[in-house]
Amino acid sequence: MHRSLPISRRVAGVAAAATTVAVVVGAAGIAFGAPLFADDFEDGNSNGWSKSGGSWSVVTDGSRALRQAGTSSDARAFAGATTWTDYAVQARVKPISYNGQSIGVIARAQNSSNYYALTLTGGQARLVKRVGGAVSTIATGVASVPAGTWATVRLEVAGGTLRGLVDGGQVVSATDATFASGRLGLLTSYASATFDDVTADTTTGTPSSPPPSSPTPSQSPEPPGECTDPPAVVGFAAVNAWGQNGTTGGCGGPTVTVSDAAAFLAAIARPGPLVIRVSGVITLPGPMHDVTSDKTIVGVGAASGLTGGGLNVGLPVDDAMTAPPANAVHNVIIRNLVFTGTPDDAVNVQMFSHHVWIDHNDLSHGYDGLVDIKRGSSYVTVSWNHTHDHTKNMLLGHDDSNGAQDTGQLKVTYHHNFFDRTPQRNPRVRFGEPVHVFNNYFLHNTDIGVACQASAGCVIENNVFEDTEEAYAIDYAGPKGRIVARGNIFIGESTPGTIGGTVQEPGTYYSYTAQSADAVKAAVLAGAGTGHI
Question: ∠ CA(383), CA(291), CA(228), 5° rounding?
Fold first, then answer.
């Protein structure tokens, strides 16, 4: 549904809004502030959009979205006002069929034949302008968005500066002064695609401009020095590797407080360091939403969080990728949030994402995984979380056949988590080594605690297993893994499982001090979950 003023009021309010909202700096120094437009199509219609060509309809694709299904013509949809000047248009885009042509977003549209656009062709991004119906390419860049994969596509226009971003990373930029103002839009050129979560926000000048004086209720600024001393992380997220020394998230960047879905989704998609404070429970359109690098997402108090949708920390799936790319998502902190009612994963980390810290969250009532880490991701710490009322808890490595991406990766630490009546995947591990599971409290896990499979190497140390049917195993299902187990306590009907083989020691990567297992249950019950940071 629209989360913006009616067009007649929306245009008049832009200048006023620029003095009342937080400034967030975009790629290479453009500052964006006031929310200008948002449509997630959850009202089941595309009212307010004008269309040219194609076959447009609102469909359900995880959530409601706008689909253009035809491939026999240029198709465009427009919204907003022709008086809009400096702004950014953003949409989640899922190509259905490129058909050898292009799909993208439009800015400064004078009409259906005159506009700027950022387009995708499958492996390339292009900044183009259409003048009198003739299309010319201004600049090109690399951006791989396979058909069937969601990506966040953003076009920023400020004065004569044009910048295109895909999944939070700048892929192309140029200067051109053909169009000074115009509407936003979506396009497919002899191609088909689905579009969702279309937003626009205004530019408010350069970073040297005076900061705005007062915030909007949905996204408010905080002192930038709030995170000058980043919290200490223990485990693999603290390791200096892959060009990143430890995990600091958005520290050093500005801070915003958000309380609705439009502001939250805009914040997690912005490039550059940013601390995002979530105030209250935000209902997301689902299923998962991309988080860009250098972000801290933290709940305010003990009850703030996300429902209806989860977070994706990672690039789109690319089975051919077997090494960390330069633009892998990295340096992300997710803390003190309540996740519930997610239609897919609550938190998904994929495609060689690294240096991710998932800490002090409460996760329950999801559809698939609560915290899944896969496809070559590494240097992750999962700590002090309370998981409950859910079956398929945490997955590390998604498939027995994915060794080409996962072997040598998936280095993850799990410590001081409360696995509370979660039957399985606590976690289920494939390929990762070493996977360090220490000082966790497992309670009434009716299937298994840690399943270490498919050549994975797990060190399971100083945990408490209470009424857990099988604490751990190397032969739970599929190819065997390796387990070194030490210092664990078994209470009630808990039984240790199968172990064997040698495993790299986590201590060769980072320093840590494991609590005695005798103290773990009390420590975890007192400190896991939200409200303890």
Answer: 65
Extract the tokens encoding 240: 């200096």
Structure tokens of 429?
A: 């591990």
pTM given for the model: 0.62
Spans of all domains in the chain: 7-203, 219-527
What is the rounded CA–CA span in Å between residue 14 and residue 34?
Answer: 7
pLDDT at 286: 80
CATH number of 7-203: 2.60.120.560
> What CA–CA distances, in Å, run from 243 to 79, 197, 247, 272, 480?
42, 33, 11, 16, 32
Closest CA to 116 of 141, 87, 143, 150: 87
User: What is the radius of gyration, based on Cα positions, of the chain?
Assistant: 24
Listed in sequence order, the DSSP H helices in 186-294 are: 261-269
Question: Residue 127: helix, strand or coil by DSSP?
Answer: strand
Over residues 16-45, the pLDDT tens digits come to: 232 233 333 443 344 445 678 889 898 899
Residue bearing tokens 């249950």: 521
CA distance 498 to 496: 7
Residues 6+ apart with CB under 8 A from 96: 67, 69, 147, 148, 191, 192, 193, 194
How far, in Å, CA of 277 to CA of 283, rounded? 15
DSSP string, 288-339: EEE--SSEEEEESSSS-EEES-EEEESPPP-TT--S--TT--EEEEEES-EE
The letter for the amino acid at 233 is V
- Taking Cα atoms as reference points, which of 79, 75, 84 lies closest to residue 45? 79
Pairing of strands 330-335, 354-359: parallel
Report the run of H or E that residue 357 belongs to, with start and end: strand 354-359
Distance CA 70, CA 41 (A): 19
CB 343 within 8 A of CB 367: yes
- State the Cα–Cα distance between residues 469 and 445, nearest whole angstrom: 6
The rounded Cα 222 to chain-centroid distance in angstroms is 22
Q: Is residue 425 among the annotated active site residues?
A: yes
Beta bridge partners of 203: 32
Which of 76, 108, 425, 482 is catalytic? The answer is 425
Query: Per the CATH hierarchy, to which homologous superfamily does domain 219-527 belong?
Result: Single-stranded right-handed beta-helix, Pectin lyase-like (2.160.20.10)
Residue recorded with tokens 């390796």 = 482
Q: Exposed/middle/buried for 222, CB within 10 Å: 0-12, 13-18, 19+?
A: middle
- For 180-215, the pLDDT digits (tens) are 999 999 999 999 999 999 999 875 433 222 333 333
Mean pLDDT of the chain: 87
Q: Tell me, what DSSP letter sits at residue 522? A: H
How is 420-452 classified by DSSP, letter by letter? ES--B-SSEEES-SSEEEES-EEE--SS-SEEE
Amino acid at 303: A
Structure tokens at 475: 């032969």
